[in-house]
Amino acid sequence: MTPIAASCAVLLALLLPAADAAAQNMFGSSDERIANEGTIGDKWMLDDGVKLATPEYPAAFADEGADVCVAIGYRIRPDGTTGDMAVLKQWNSEKGEAEPQAGFWQAFAESGASALGQWRFKPRPEVGSPRPTYTVATMSFKGSKGSSDPNFSSHCRITDLAAVVQQRKSDAYSRRSREKHDLERANQTGLSRGAMNEQPGRRP
Fold it and tell me: Residue 31 and which of 132, 157, 186, 202 are 20 to 30 A apart at CA?
């Protein structure tokens, strides 16, 4: 096997399991509950002394002053901590779903995730040991030059989280299939080139 073919084979072995694991961790599994925003209260309550931290408007974009919302999916683990966060939807009053400038979405996502990371829950007394729960939080950032619409966060509201999760899983599967196809094709190309190099008198 040529060095090119060997490298492609190694990449195929490493990338595909990693992609599968990432999709599984981020968007839930069959043994956990998926709950729409505002519906976790039947199983969970805030831990003692905990208040819901709110995100801060990123200083780097304060002068632009756009209204921004970000929907962040997250998992409530059995111990009540939060993790496995993923941006599911985002919007700003300047360019809608488009990014006004480089680094914009990342800054707001990081601010939202920082606030979410401080949230702590505990099971309701009558529940006992609830299943891990995947849910979503809509984070709002009111800018100094934003719109006059007090309900701008509705642009990011997700009303059917289960459908979004299923779509993300489907997209991840399709992406992995394309990556597998591309890597296998590159692998075959490497093998073909290697065969031709071993037979220099053979015309393509």
Answer: 157
